Fold D-altronate dehydratase.
Amino acid sequence: MIPVTSLRIHPADTVATALVDLDAGAFISVDGASVRLVEAVARGHKVALAPIAKGEAVIKYGFPIGVATAPIAAGAHVHSHNLATALSGSGEYRYAPAGAAEARAVAPRSFRGYARADGRAGTRNEIWILPTVGCVGNLAARVARIAGARHAGRVDGIHAFKHPFGCSQLGDDLGHTRGLLAALAQHPNAGGVLIVGLGCESNQLDALIADIPPERRASIRTLSAQAVADDEAACLALVDELVDMAATDRRSNLPLSALTLGVKCGGSDGLSGLTANPLVGRMADAVAGAGGKVILTEIPEIFGAEQLLMDRAASREVFDETVALVRDFKDYFLRHGEPVSENPSPGNIAGGITTLEEKSLGAVQKGGQVPLVDVRRYGGEAARPGLTLLEAPGNDAVSSTALTAAGATIILFTTGRGTPLGFPAPTLKIASNSALAERKAGWIDFDAGRVLEDGFDAASDALLDLIVAAASGEETKAELNEERDIAIWKSGVTL
């Protein structure tokens, strides 16, 4: 009996993915037939199942992932030496709604969260300190450190989120900074927020506060450092006041529908689209199926697979907004003289991903089968149950911060290579392979490699239990490691 060492995802695929390192001369079994490898193929990399002619499309996930740049023999390694992207330009899209697919039913679950006055729910009750400008970032961090020790145990944490922006910015660039900070200031995981300004910066406090609805300002305090003699003492006094308010909040039983799930991948490998991303897709189905919200972003990492999302648009309006967002992002690349296919990263390539089409077809699986109900631009907030597509680049820190600003109260972050990064919202790191989960146990919260032996149903139940535990207050590895940062999208000129 030939052991299962590779996987063909779709019956139409002309390649299989190696699940372990395979030597030249080894045999893989696909649908009862065996293929002999003519060269070694590393775990996560692709092997041709039949001869592929030069110029012929290579099929994975049931879709083309590029074209062969040279003849490829059956059993040969398929990668960047003989496969290239077919993406170019902005592309044409069709409105062909596919209807909602049936998702797997899950047992009802609840979590212990914080019910906010405006009907939203938090998974943490923290005090956040947001500097309007990089000049007061260290002040914010110092205040958070002192206040954290002073009020230990009264709230779930006191955190400052430094960034280098807020001055010498113009137009949309300044608007991005202001809008993102305003959105973070309204996050349901923050029981209180102190916004600290310098006083002379471009990102003026008054303009930032004007972007926040009046009904959400009750737990927000502001301070201009240049306007007071002792800025540290003044900040600490305001944090004391916020802690006194937030400390009265208590966790209560809340339904899964109260969650807002952000889904993200970073440092992906050839197994990400086989294990971790489809597993997260099941979590998206579970949360949205219960009436919750799911947010998908990383727009450059859906290029080549965007039609699959467009086919799930809940209306023609949502379809048109999706097309506009994708085209705007492609034009952004082209305006800067960059090809739209300048992806995957070196780490992705080392892990077995060859083209952007392949990466995108794996990445969009994080959205499960959830209907696409809304499209939001950078700094916008997810407002409708179902799947929201959010404008942000692929950069891990920038896009995960955008997910938080859009209201994500838990982030599911899949990875095949590993990363220690954490963000304002609790972030669960999900490894695509068991070797990574074992080697970097201090980073990884869940091993999605188990689906290859245990199956998706068992792994789905276990991951959903972990999400509920994290939403109820159990600290993620990133939180335990004090990995809590933000990054703001810089897209314009600096004065």
Q: What stands out?
A: The chain has three domains: 6-84, 126-248, 254-480.
